[in-house]
Write a structure and sequence with these properties.
Helix content is 44%, strand content 16%. With 339 residues, the chain is of the alpha/beta class. The strands form 3 sheets. Strands 3-2-1-4-5-6-10 form a 7-stranded parallel β-sheet, sandwiched between helices. Strands 7-9-11 form a 3-stranded mixed β-sheet. Strands 8-12 form a two-stranded parallel ribbon. Strand 4 (69-72), helix 3 (85-102) and strand 5 (109-115) form a beta-alpha-beta unit. Helix 5 packs across helix 7 (237-248).
Length: 339
């Protein structure tokens, strides 16, 4: 049997699918998860579990010892935080310690989960991995992701770490127990709690199983020091909601919020955050982030990693079925409760 594979952040949406695919392939899999983390997505798997967060470097070192590949799937995605310090603490500072440990191990590959938001995208043109991002005016969340990717590529260049950066798009599919922000769109639709659709908003998207497969292929074929865009296509919020409603057999939202109204709602959220000192998910910064979408070209991943994704619409349907199953399970549980 080959050397063990380590998945850090294995209970997350993407990390759990990486873990499941490795186990299905017969690999000896180690996982690292935080104390008291919700691990329902991997509890049925035969893995060796290490408990600790990424700042617990003794546990990181023990988990990594003897492994040949590390899949790093940890990210704080709370782009709405008024105080962005936690984003940089996890996404950059925590990563730096793990990289220090990894650089001292005889790894064959360190597969880092980055974001397609680190690539320079402009409306009207298709971006590739060679397009540098304009670092002026970036949101705190995107800055944390850019700095994290910079750090990984620096360790590849200056410390000999065989690292690749996977610039993954928004992921859809089953098992989104933590409810990612884009997954919440599908859950809200299925549960009938989505009052409207945001007009003029689209995301680069990919099925979570295809994204996980890309990470595993990167361990085999990825070139150290390179980054790879992982997306299947651009898809609008309206199409995601329509597909999810159709699959779940529920009516889609009847109202659409036009772009000017979206900016007005973002301005109101920004003002509320300032006056009340609260974290608001819909602010001018988040609206600008949603509106910054532009097409990307994933030919490099297809060519070098031999990656062939399925249409993301199928993954949206899978996600809708997942939430419909959850809805049915909750309904059954309530019916079983005594009056």
């Amino acid at each position: 049997m080959s050397a063990p594979k380590l998945v850090i952040g294995a209970n997350g949406f993407l990390g759990s699918h990486v873990t499941r695919q490795l186990v299905a392939a017969g690999e000896d899999v180690r996982v690292m998860v935080r104390q008291n983390a919700n691990t329902v997505s991997i509890d049925d798997l035969e893995v060796t579990r290490f408990v600790g967060d990424i700042f617990d470097l003794d546990t990181v070192r023990a988990a990594m010892d003897g492994c040949d590949v590390v899949y790093y799937c940890v990210v704080d995605t709370r782009a709405w935080l008024r105080d962005p310090a936690p984003l940089f603490h996890t996404n950059v500072d925590g990563l730096r310690g793990v990289l220090d440990v990894a650089a001292r191990q005889p790894l064959t590959k360190f597969v880092f989960t980055s974001s397609y938001s680190t690539v320079g995208r402009k409306r009207g043109r298709v971006a590739t991995e060679n397009d540098p991002i304009d670092r002026r005016g970036l949101s705190a969340y995107v800055r944390s992701r850019v700095q994290a990717e910079d750090l990984v590529l620096e360790y590849a260049r200056d410390h000999g770490l065989p690292a690749v950066a996977m610039c993954v798009a928004s992921t859809y599919g089953r098992g989104d127990y933590g409810m990612t922000p884009h997954g919440a769109l599908i859950a809200g639709t299925v549960f009938g709690k989505m009052p409207f659709v945001l007009g003029g908003v689209s995301l680069e998207a990919v099925g979570v199983q295809d994204a996980a497969r890309a990470l595993i292929l990167a361990a085999e074929h990825g070139r150290p020091g390179e980054r790879y865009l992982i997306s299947e296509r651009m898809i609008s919020n309206a199409e995601v909601v329509r597909i999810a409603a159709e699959e779940a057999g529920v009516p889609p939202p009847s109202r659409t919020i036009p772009v000017p109204a979206l900016y007005a709602m973002g301005a109101a959220g920004t003002l509320k955050a300032r006056l009340r000192g609260t974290d608001e998910r819909l602010t001018l910064e988040s609206v600008r982030l949603m509106r910054a979408e532009a097409d990307v070209d994933c030919a490099k991943a297809r060519r070098e990693l031999h990656w062939e994704p399925s249409p993301v619409q199928e993954s949206v349907r899978e996600a809708a079925r997942f939430w419909a199953d959850m809805r049915a399970a909750r309904k059954k549980a309530r019916a079983a409760q005594p009056d």
